[in-house]
Design goal:
single chain; 151 residues; alpha+beta; Alpha-Beta Plaits; 5-stranded mixed β-sheet; two-stranded antiparallel ribbon; 38% helix; binds flavin mononucleotide
Length: 151
Amino acid sequence: MPLCRLIYQSQTSWDQLTNELLRDLAVKSAKSNQRRHISGLLILSGEKFLQVLEGPSEEVNALYAKLIRDRRHHDLVLISYEQIATRCFEDWSMRVVDLDDLPPTAREFLRNKYPEVDGSIEIPEDAAKALALLFDAQALCLDETEFGDAS
Ligand SMILES: Cc1cc2nc3c(=O)[nH]c(=O)nc-3n(C[C@H](O)[C@H](O)[C@H](O)COP(=O)(O)O)c2cc1C
């Protein structure tokens, strides 16, 4: 089955999504994605999510249909959808990173590269910039020795 990469952003519904719920969401998503051969990364910055999903097209499409209906977030914007030959985000079935909770060195690194809005890194709508931020977040998670505990 062909592989695809889907990237979208959305707005959190904070009245419903507490930190505890977010942790629960991360654990459940990781388990469910593993069964469906989906991998990816979910960034939270301020009140916005940016998520990349990679996996078999049918599985990713079915998950996106569920995500659109999930009331824990709203105003989803599809940033990019493409067929891929190989995965770039294969390290986690789902990893959640809150950019506001990163250690100071990691935050400084991002602040030097990306604009901020209301004290948080702005989630880009441009596909190339969104992918760049996801790659940087992935690198920060993988390189926790240099930047401190980014989990
Ligand atoms: C920001 C956000 C990201 C999510 N990411 C995933 C994910 O990667 N995988 C997943 O299975 N569910 C994810 N969910 C939850 C799904 O929307 C949905 O609730 C879940 O797949 C359970 O669906 P079900 O009730 O049909 O089993 C996410 C929800 C939100 C709000």
